[in-house]
Amino acid sequence: MNPYPSIEAQDRPARLTVGVVGAGRVGPALAASLQLAGHRPVAVSGVSDASVRRAAELLPGVPLVTPAEVLARADLVLLTVPDDALADLVSGLAETGAVRPGQLLVHTSGRFGTAVLDPATRAGALPLALHPAMTFTGTSVDVQRLAGCPFGVTAPEELRMAAEALVIEMGGEPEWIAESARPLYHAALAIGANYLVTLVAQAMELLEKAGVRAPDRMLGPLLGAALDNVLRSGDAALTGPVARGDAGTVAAHVAELRKHAPQAVGGYLAMARMTADRALAHGLLKPELAEELLDVLAGPAADGGAAGPAASAGGQAPSGGPGHDGDEPTGTDADAPGSPEPTGPEPTDTGPPRPDSPDSDSPEPGPHGGDA
Known about the structure:
Number of helices: 13
Number of strands: 7
Helix content: 40-55%
Shape: elongated
Largest sheet: 7 strands, mixed
Order of helices and strands: EHEHHEHEHEHEHEHHHHHH
Distance between the termini: 36 Å
Low-confidence stretches: 4-13, 302-368
Structural class: alpha/beta
Mean pLDDT: 83
Oligomer: single chain
């Protein structure tokens, strides 16, 4: 027996009324893109001043109401709140009777599939998880960025076509992600996008300490080429002193970082060890050059503690390569340089995240509801 009501054309209007719960960086942009596809935003909820401004800019004329009122007005509801607030929000909406049978309920968390929507599903909602693998700024440029943006899609098989159709209408490209794979999927986006921001920002700070007047202009061409190369060639794109086995250069780097940026030593050693692992595994780092290099990488970290085990010259280090940890991603959602607001969820009113949940600034995709 199909547990989900039919959503064929004769059972549902061709164009949907759209509501947004959580006017963070993601929700208004998605609603605006659905409006371009012919759907009609009718209600949005948000509790911070930034949310109010964002909704007014991206969804002009759409009334700001309570979350329960959003669900009362909309056929399709976007739940774009921080990952950790999502479960309580859904439970609260279901317990208060706000969920209507046959209503499409969409969350944009990269971490979760549709199981987090189970309380609403039991009330008759149609559950969809649509995570845009994109960083959001909270401005109109986000709507343009959705063109060609991959979405991590999870939904019951009966709703798969509806989920993919909504993504396509927003200009995105659906990529099916199994429920059980969502945390790993989101961890990959966080490593690739969120941590890239940390690495690049740190590199810019170090260049400033070295006297470079425009670190962004110096790094831009290099990072663009490196990103293009790795997307095309994977580990074959590895270059630099670690991949070459230049232990003396790596030792000089560590010594300079200890003097000028001791907080960066731990990260440098960790990334260098992972780079050495991958270079060894792919035949880029010659085993005969690796022993001295790995001795350098096994040195003390910035706090004086051990930096961790290193590989032997003939094989991979025990660190095991890039790890995966649990977000959106989104979110993700590392902000692009020049973003008008700080990264992360906005300050919100106090109280439990039930129907009056905090707004989401994750792309969380991500790359958080976003960010990736």
